[in-house]
Amino acid sequence: MKVKNMLTAVVAFALTASFCAAQTEQTQVIEGGGTGAWKSVAVGDKSLPTHTIYRPENLKAYVEQNGKIPVLLYANGACANNNLEMSRLLSEVASHGYFILAIGPYQDMPDEAFYNQWKGVVRGWYPETKPIAIMGNGERLTPYTEAELATQAAEREAAQKAAAAAAKKNKNKKPVVQVEPFHTYARQLLEALDWLTDQNGNDESEYYHLIDLEHVAAMGQSCGGAQVLGVAHDPRIKTCMIFNSGIGEMAMSGASKKSLANLHTPMLYINGGTADVAYNNANGDWGRIADCIPVVKISTLDGHHGTYYEKNAGAFAVVARMWLNWQLKGIIGDSALFMNDEYEKTFYPEWTFERKNW
Predict the structure, then answer these.
(1) Which of 330, 266, 328 lies closest to 297, judged by CA?
(2) What is the number of other CB atoms lying within 10 angstroms of the CB of residue 2?
């Protein structure tokens, strides 16, 4: 009975949310609002509690000067219910005139807390091909030393022994059921787009007639890339961006290599090179994507976490907004990064670019 009541409540909430006008509850400026002409904000909206919005702060002024704003749907690394990992990149892209719907509820994240959170991740996943990393706050990071790695290994071994001893001591006790942490699902990308479609047509919404629903992109990091592949068949999506990801031989988050047969839009893959755990998967997808689908694949030297910790998310943010400028806004000059050999050699000489079916 309780389960039935819970399901009824969830359905009722979903129906209510789909018809409510957008209600901005919280906003946050991230890293100065980006480098674009339209300073961005991260937004928590009462009628969309499952997602965070990144958009120009003065959205109406943007639309008055440029026309309706294109849309980017974003899915997180680890398929997590938290978009903080890419908050700098999403804020940066939004400042160039994009309305972004990112899976994961709004959370405050001051710059200092963000950089502190990233330190261990960056150092732990540091690719040998990239000897220097500069955080967005100007701090230089170096990889873990051999002594630090040895200390970490010793701590892990001690923790494993302690856990084994505790298990032996409590073997006759009733086991405690561990609840898996909540993970997201691919359909949330399309649910957010459904919500935005309702808002665009609702004359009581602050987004009424401001959204360009004819120009929608989907982007995912790592496991989020699999979520994008899982919904890429939707005709409303006009291009996909697969960051540090690829399905390869895996089946993950509703996607498998069979999903590649459903692609219908230009595709961008960018990975961190051989230091990226998704490198082989991205290469596997490259060989399977049909000859009728235009694809660009970029391999960098940045590892699985790209440049998201760098100032304004570094080169990966540049790639994202230039692809969107080309694909959604028709800015042909920005296609040079993907189609012009001389441009690529001049500005990104250490990266490898591949393209097919153009």
Answers:
(1) 266
(2) 6
CA angle 82–105–222, rounded 5-degree value: 25
Candidate from 55-69, 104-118, 216-230 with smallest mean pLDDT = 104-118
6 vs 69, higher pLDDT? 69
pTM, to two decimals:
0.87
If one compares 239 and 23, the residue with the highest pLDDT of the two is 239
CA–CA separation, 290 and 45 (whole Å): 39
- Looking at domain 18-109+183-356, its CATH superfamily turns out to be Alpha/Beta hydrolase fold, catalytic domain (3.40.50.1820)
**Sequence-ordered strand ranges (E) for the chain:** 24-28, 40-45, 51-56, 69-75, 99-103, 133-134, 140-141, 211-221, 237-243, 267-271, 295-299, 352-356
Is the confidence at residue 218, as pLDDT, over 70? yes
Q: What CA–CA distances, in Å, run from 261 to 96, 255, 258, 285?
A: 32, 11, 6, 11
